[in-house]
Design brief:
- It is a single chain.
- This protein is an alpha+beta fold and 191 residues long.
- It folds into three domains: 59 residues, Nucleic acid-binding proteins (OB fold (Dihydrolipoamide Acetyltransferase, E2P)), CATH 2.40.50.140; 69 residues, 5' to 3' exonuclease, C-terminal subdomain (DNA polymerase, domain 1, Orthogonal Bundle); 48 residues, Helicase, Ruva Protein, domain 3, CATH 1.10.8.
- The chain contains eight helices and five strands.
- Strands 1-2-3-5-4 form a five-stranded mixed barrel.
- The longest helix has 17 residues.
Length: 191
Amino acid sequence: MISRIEGKIVLKADKYIVVDVGGVGYKISVSPDTLAKLPKEGSVSLFTHLHVREDALELYGFKDIKELEFFEMLINISGIGPKSALSIIGIAPIETLKKAIGSGDTSYLTKVSGIGKKMSEKIVLELRDKLSALGHRAEEGELSGELDAVEALRSLGYSQNEARDALKQVSPDLSSVSDRVKQALKILGGK
């Protein structure tokens, strides 16, 4: 199994990169967050998961081990494939997703295309105890505040993806919804 790749980025596309390692180019699918953190050119080191299918070998890459571990938890759930797992990882920071699942909040997961209410409930059911044992239970109101911030930005005309991307960049020290929205608006205004 290939668990880590280090090499030079030769191509950076929308959902994957190609890394040259000793003259061999590896196509590696990555999450939107990982893609944003990678340079357009230069060397890179990624933790990887090799997904074996009957007709293909696919590599999925992650900048840090926490993202890889969460990805592997998701794909161990029947009905969740690697592409769905990458989509889930792309909607919010990993810690926020873990807290949402640990507290039983399915609304975060239903925002992903292809993940309906039943599948989100299945994810919560299968991962809740594992994540709660690891200390990923959200404080009361913490997730609703995040959802309120997203909805506030959406009501101002921003898409859900724009709102979530901006909120990912907001300082975690800001706890009130209004402060988080104000900071997100500054980030969105700077683009």
